[in-house]
Amino acid sequence: MYHLAAEPYLGIWLKGSFVAFIVFVIYAVLVYFFIQRARAGLPIPTIRKIAGLEALDEAIGRATEMGRPVNYVPGIGASYNMQTIASYAMLGHVSKRTAQYDTRFIFTCADPIVLPIAEEVIRQSYLEAGRPDAYNPDDVRFLSDWQFGYCSGVLGIYHRERPAANILFGAFWAESLIFAEEGNRIGSIQIGATANMAQIPFFVAACDYALIGEEMYAASAYLSKEPVLYGTVVSEDWMRILFFAVIVVGTIFQIVQGKANVITSIFSK
Amino acid sequence: MSTDVGVWLQVICTIGVLTYLYKENWFWRIFEYAIVAGYTGYSLAYGYHNYIKPFIGEKMIKEGQWSFLIPLILGILLYARFVSGWGWLGRYAMAYMIGYGAGYTLGFDIKPLLGQIRASFISLTSINNIILWLFIVTSLAYFFFTVSKEAPAMKGLSTVGKWAVMIALGASFGNTILYRYNLLYPRMKLLFNTWLGLGG
């Protein structure tokens, strides 16, 4: 890992981290500011429509009408992977909906640490939906922590349980196309979301709706309208706009002053 | 045709998995269960020999490095959910894992991101640089969630950004498909060349 190559000053400060620290502080202030505003009910910018998420209720509704389960795959990322963490929020939303609609919900994972977290999230969602009795722990399963072992287990569930809706939301690697293609083959309505660049094309090609990269991080906030999540996504977006401006200004300086320009030197600190 | 038992075993497994292409069937299911069960056994042995034995058995108990007690306790707490009324204890271990992930990302993921931004300051002196820069800023604009895409300037930026993303995804798709052929090739070589003795 790159950061281990340098010896941190006083055990915590890595040389050349000044700008990163400033960015961190700006981001932290923005997050705090927007969360406080959202909590207080004050106006904050709204998140634009994300097509794949509009279809989520349609997918769960379809499964309910057909009397078939909703299947949720969180990818094969570790429990602390950012995409998996984003997936927990989505998992909460989807499982709450299935509890409200009284639709069977199947969850499988490839990381043993993800299992207890998912169990907690799903159990809590069923509780919030007022249906704690409907929660079935046997439908929350750990299959294998080997990528293709997990893949094989999920395909078996596809064919035996025949889910009508398939939500693929998290960090995916080579198994993404296998899941999406087979979900398509059994006639599931599919919503795929990942930030792994090499896997997004497969979701775009084989899923009914695909959330590309950053869209998956905005998803849970968009759906839940929960102040903490919403404020975080808005602040993240403001950071993105700030970076956009920095790229434009930095390029102008590059053109005018050449490689040794002011902005580049600031970014080297 | 090969007379090697190992080759025959590989061929049976390969054909067993490939029968799935026709439909889900009992023969394929044998291999589905075998793969899942085989790897579960393997990871159990792997976990014991690579983590429990060297860290707990050797370093903690034999060498007296008692700091390994902390991860051990956190690990054991995860099993508390199997004891009625004590499941809440496992949340401490989970909170640690999620906190670690969030902290690591905030601590170490900003710097590489800044490196990417700095690399985007390019002189627009060639057509390649112009396309690269244009695709960077427009695809970034495509992911603005709080800015309406109905505004004329944003609509243009966002549309170009969407095309930029789609072109990149198309290239990535082709690249991955080629890689998948590399995975298929050894299987076909096993079946036609090693097993049946066909080809060179």
What does this structure look like?
Chain A has eleven helices and six strands. Chain A is of the alpha/beta class. In chain A, strands 3-2-1-4-5-6 form a six-stranded parallel β-sheet, with helices on both faces. Chain A is globular. By secondary structure, chain B is mostly helical. Chain B is built from seven helices and no strands. Chain B is flat. Chain B starts with a helix and ends in a 5-residue tail after the last helix. The model of chain B has no long low-confidence stretch (mean pLDDT 91). The interface between A and B is large, with 75 and 59 residues.
Biggest β-sheet description of chain B: none
Identify the overall geometry of chain A. globular
How many domains of chain A? The number is 2
The helix/strand series of chain B, from N terminus to C terminus, equals HHHHHHH
Any idea what the radius of gyration of chain B is?
27 Å
The end-to-end span of chain A amounts to 21 Å
Arithmetic mean pLDDT of chain A: 90
Instruction: Note the total helix count of chain A.
Output: 11
Largest inter-chain interface? Answer: A-B, 75 and 59 residues
Which stretches of chain B are low in confidence, meaning pLDDT under 50 for 5 or more residues running?
none
CATH class annotation of the largest domain in chain A: Alpha Beta
Strand order of the biggest β-sheet of chain A: 3-2-1-4-5-6
- The coarse overall form of chain B would be flat
- Number of discrete domains of chain B: 3
The CATH architecture term of the largest domain in chain A is 3-Layer(aba) Sandwich
What amount of the residues of chain B lies in strands?
under 5%
Determine the mean pLDDT of chain B.
91
Number of helices of chain B: 7
